[in-house]
Design brief:
The chain is an alpha/beta fold and about 400 residues long. It folds into 2 domains: about 5-30 and about 290-395, Aspartate Aminotransferase, domain 1 (Alpha-Beta Complex), CATH 3.90.1150.10; about 45-285, 3-Layer(aba) Sandwich (Aspartate Aminotransferase, domain 2), CATH 3.40.640. The protein has 14 helices and 14 strands. The chain has helices at about 5-10, 15-25, 45-55, 70-85, 100-110, 125-135, 155, 180-195, 225, 255-265, 270-285, 285-310, 345-355, 380-395, and strands at about 35, 95, 115-120, 135-140, 165-170, 200, 230-235, 245-250, 325, 335, 340, 355-360, 360, 370-375. The longest helix is centred in the C-terminal third of the chain and has 22 residues, at about 285-310. It starts with a helix and ends with a helix. The chain binds glutamic acid.
Length: about 400
């Protein structure tokens, strides 16, 4: 007896694995600073929690419609109009168990075996694995550090074939923080319309942009691109609700209907009380979320400066999300305690062993010269982590 080829074909989520390692080490009494997981350190705002408590008290604890409650779909419609300038109707919205689940359902609904999905690299770890789970092929579109890891039409066009089904967009990007401009998006939208592929726009980090960057939803750039865009977002990062597992999709009715059918056989509804809380998160006061963004911005500036002061490390300043993706290849070829650092995996192991700092090796995101550091942790942790990292790098010979 053995597990399926499909199961053997994928790797576990590196981001979740690193977070689990840091948690395990802490449980053993080891003082490890976790920069691994992209999870806000803030608590879910009280008014959102209250809505869940109230839902519990009211006995709102049973199955809901598999694709989510109407009230939450309407809240998503309101949010997309208010923040993204997009018009959707209730039957164009599906609520799922987190953005990751939304994305998986999109792939399940659209992909045939052998279809090609264009994924900009560096990429979030789950995109290629989810594509493989649908027996389709991830095709990477490499962006360049010298261009700020920006995706644009000239990079994508040579990779489009007759088998291209979807281009994945993730702006702002996990892991690089690159956020695309209206012009860059317009070029990609035109290409999608000309060549007839879908756009899966993962906008999970749209509320976390800095330096005056304006987030633009690609679906807002015209009727033709609207008709071939499937927008995914999540409440996890914007409202510090990672554990609640609420994500949503907006797109053409027939795709949403297909995804709902899949979800009805797969998970049924997202948790009832989390849906009630999500309504309040999306339609209630947004100040808590704005304050979190300001704090992330402060941390971003600090961490970029500290990293750039370390020998062998260089770090671009990201326009969005809460990750930095420093290039650490200047340390490759050096030794610590007789061990050679050859790549991002070695560097990550060295940091964990020597500095008790947990990061994710860039190789997991498709770039072995880099590491990913999440700054969604307290300023005191960031200071301590940067001090430890600098001290460890000083020891390299
Ligand atoms: N998206 C976050 C990250 O990249 C959470 C973990 C995950 O789902 O990958 O760290």
């Amino acid at each position: 007896m053995t597990v399926s080829q499909r199961a053997r074909n994928i790797v576990p989520s590196a981001t979740l694995t690193i977070a689990a390692t840091a948690r395990r080490m802490r449980a053993q009494g080891i003082d490890v600073i976790g920069f691994g997981s992209g999870e806000p350190d803030f608590d879910t705002p009280d008014h959102i929690k209250e809505a869940a408590v109230q839902a519990l008290r009211e006995g709102f604890t049973k199955y809901t419609a598999s694709g989510g409650i109407d009230e939450l779909k309407d809240a998503v419609v309101t949010r997309l109009k208010r923040d993204n300038g997009l018009e959707y109707s209730r039957d164009q919205i599906l609520i799922s168990c987190g953005g990751k689940h939304s994305i998986y359902n999109v792939f399940q609904a659209l992909l045939e075996p052998g279809d090609e999905v264009l994924i900009p690299a560096p990429y979030w770890v789950s995109f290629p694995e989810q594509v493989k789970l649908c027996d389709a092929k991830p095709i990477f579109v490499h962006t360049h550090e010298q261009e700020g890891f920006r995706l644009h039409r000239a990079l994508v066009e040579p990779r489009v074939t007759a088998h291209t089904k979807i281009l994945v967009l993730n702006s702002p990007s996990n892991p690089t923080g690159a956020a695309l401009t209206r012009d860059e998006l317009a070029g990609l939208a035109a290409l999608a319309v000309e060549r007839g592929f879908w756009l899966l726009s993962d906008e999970t980090y749209d509320a976390l942009v800095y330096d005056g960057h304006e987030h633009v939803s690609i679906a807002s750039l015209g009727d033709q691109v609207y008709a071939r865009t499937i927008l995914v977002n999540s409440l996890s990062k914007t409202y510090a609700m990672t554990g609640w597992r609420v994500g949503y999709t907006a797109g053409p009715k027939d795709v949403i209907k297909a995804m709902d059918n899949i979800q009805s056989q797969e998970t049924s509804n997202p948790t009832s009380i989390a849906q009630r809380a999500a309504v309040v998160a999306l339609t209630g006061p947004q100040e808590a979320s704005h304050r979190m963004r300001e704090e992330f911005d402060r941390r971003r500036r600090f961490i970029v400066e500290r990293l750039n002061a370390m020998p062998g490390v260089s770090c671009l300043s990201p326009q969005g999300a809460f990750y930095v993706f420093p290039n650490v290849s200047g340390t490759f070829g050096k030794h610590h305690a007789g061990t050679l650092i050859r790549n991002s995996t070695d560097f990550t192991a060295f940091l964990l062993d020597t500095a008790r700092v947990a990061v994710v090796p860039g190789v997991e995101f498709g770039s072995d010269a880099h590491i990913r550091i999440s700054y969604a942790t307290s300023m005191s942790n960031i200071k301590k982590g940067m001090d430890r990292m600098a001290a460890a790098i000083q020891q390299l010979r």
